[in-house]
Each structure stands twice: as C-alpha cells, then as structure tokens.
Amino acid sequence: MTQDFRGALIGCGFFAQHHARAWLELEGVELVAVCDRNKARATAFAQTFGVLSVYDAAETMLEHETLDFVDIATQASTHSELVALAARCGVNVICQKPLAPTLEEARAIVESAQGVTLMVHENFRWQRPMRELKRVAAELGPLFYGRIGFRSAYDVYADQPYLATDPRFILLDVGVHLFDLARFFLGETETLLCHTARVNPNIAGEDVATVLLNMTSGAHAVVELSYASRLEQELFPQTLVQLEGPLGSAVLTADYQIVVTTAQGVRRTDATPHVLPGTPGPLTAIPESVLNVQRHWLECLQRGRMPDTSGADNLKTLELTFGAYRSAEEGEVVRLGKL
Length: 339
Ligand code: NAD
Ligand code: 89V
Hints:
Strand order of the largest sheet: 14-13-12-11-7-10-9-8-15
Order of helices and strands: EHEHEHEHEHEHEHEEEEEEEHHE
Structural class: alpha/beta
Radius of gyration: 20 Å
Number of domains: 2
Number of helices: 9
Largest sheet: 9 strands, mixed
Helix content: 25-40%
Bound molecules: nicotinamide-adenine-dinucleotide, (2S)-2,3-dihydroxy-3-methylbutanoic acid
C-alpha cells in the first residue's frame, strides 16, 4: 500500500483556498498543517478545510511536523526566505508564481533548493484549453506564429490590493503565465522587444504590455497583456491563443472552442474547463488548472522525476519576464541568455 504524501501550506490568503481545495480533492496526499503569520487567518482557514495543525511561523511548523513538501502561497517578496528554510530542512517545495521580484533573487532561490525538488506553481499551461490546444497543435507542422493574449478591465485590485502598489505589475503577475505558455507552445526565445504603459493612473506599475518574441525555432510570437481594456466581452481571466503552422491554424476562442483549420476543412473542439464546485467569482478555468498542476506535483514525487515547471525551468520564463522589462526600459531588442 502506498502512503499519502504529507504536505503543509504556507500562506492562507486570497489564493490559498484553491490550493487547499485541490489537496482535499486529490488522492495520495494529506494536508497536515497550515501556517500564516496572521494566526487568526490560519486558524479560520484550518477550520474551513479541516486541517488539524495550525502555525504562525514556518520555522516552528517545520520543526514540529514531518513533511514531504511545503506549498508556499505567499507573495513573491517572501519566497526566498521560505524556500531556503524548507530546503535546509530537506523538505520539497512548491512555490507560487512569480518565484521572485528580481531575476537575481530567483536564481538564488533555485540555487538554495539544490538538495530538494522545487516546482513553481505555474498553472496556466495546466488549463484544460491549453492542454487541448497543445495536443491539436501537433497537426499543424512546425509552428511559425503564435499570439497569446490576456486583455481585460477586470478589477483585479479588489482581491489582490498589492497589485496596485507593486512597482512592477502586469508582466510579473500575468506575463509569467503567458511567457510560460509561449515556451509551452513554441519553445525558447532568442530575442524580444517589449513596450509597456500605465493607463490606470491609480496604480504604481505597468498595466499594459506588448511583447514581440523571436523564437530560436524561427517562429514569431506576440504576447499581449492588459488590465486597461474595456471590451464588449469581459473575459477575465481567459487567455486567447492563436497558433499557425504550414499545415493549418488552431485558435482558442472566447467560448472555449478550439477551431482547427487545415486543407481538410474546419473543425471545432470543445475545451470548456470543468468548473469545480465552490469556485468563487469569474475564475472558471483556474481551479481546475490548480488541481492539475498539483496532481502533476504528486506524480513527480511518486516517480522521482523533475516537474515540468521546476525551479530551473521557471528561470527561463523569468528571463523572458525580466528581459521584457529591460527591453521596455531601454527601448531596445533584448537577446536572451545575456541577462
Ligand atoms: P495574499 O496576500 O492574499 O496572501 C498571502 C498570505 O501569506 C497572507 O495571509 C500573509 O499573511 C501570508 N504570509 C506572508 N508571509 C508569510 C510568512 N513568511 N509565513 C507565513 N505566512 C505568510 O496573497 P494572494 O493574493 O493569495 O497571492 C499569493 C501568491 O499567489 C502570489 O504570489 C500571487 O501572485 C499568486 N497568485 C496566483 C494566482 C494564479 O492564478 N496562479 C492567482 C492569485 C494569486
Ligand atoms: O496569477 C494571478 O495572479 C491571477 C490570475 C487570475 C491572472 O491568474 O491574478
């Protein structure tokens, strides 16, 4: 009989509820403890999800609990300390995106976790429509073009107020997801050019970014991000994708259809995500993708293999992200691998 993996959640804020629901849903894992430096929040969270042990300091939790992994769902500025702490205790780590507020800090985090398995909780590539799109893209031949877009006017600041004050916003918060998707569909990037803007005067960072990627395969991609786009259909948090190859195209539409056009004609596949019970607000595709990425983590632990979005893998996504900031600041094309 296989034993359940013992996990503990650090951070019981806005997004942690999706992690906890997924752990409860998955087989082969037990959420044995939660921790938040706000003890009242941790206690309420533990009651909601039926978790027995509650802590207000990760050090104490790691001293008292026998754990296979910790799941860090705190904001980026706290990740370096928490990952290093878990790694020193020999405990594997899942860490929310963005891994760190700077590329240097992200590299140091990956270095500090050398002795354990580190996965970045990158859920967008685990959305059902993205898995389906990846499957059908194999029919198109070597891709020469991709467009990955997230355009919305949703009031994201209501649930995540820190996004309004962070000096760097959309590239770091949502860009990481879209760059990871660009890598998932089209591979690595050679050069990029990025323009950013701050349209909303009440926030500190950029809320619009347009990035042109020149991939090592020779393909081109456009990654576009906006929280300032009032459109007929408010699609938050949907990401629309178009992929083109010599044999045809595949388009993920707003109603979760994948339209594949080849010389044989046009075909539609339904890729509507399963909405998990208890999903709040408009998050639709998100909780199922959280479930999928956490299932992937358990499979990797079971098989002793590296997760698809390991710390080292995620550094490539962050090179794109911070490369985009540099390009926007300097007004120049940035060559990857030189950051
Ligand atoms: P939040 O501020 O609501 O919650 C973070 C919690 O962590 C807070 O309760 C805080 O008290 C606690 N905390 C901070 N430092 C701690 C420490 N050292 N020890 C214990 N507890 C600590 O933040 P959030 O909105 O839940 O976001 C958390 C992370 O999740 C962010 O990195 C964000 O980018 C990410 N996120 C991802 C998605 C997604 O779709 N993938 C969506 C929302 C947020
Ligand atoms: O990743 C995030 O922080 C979320 C989003 C819904 C874009 O995934 O805000």
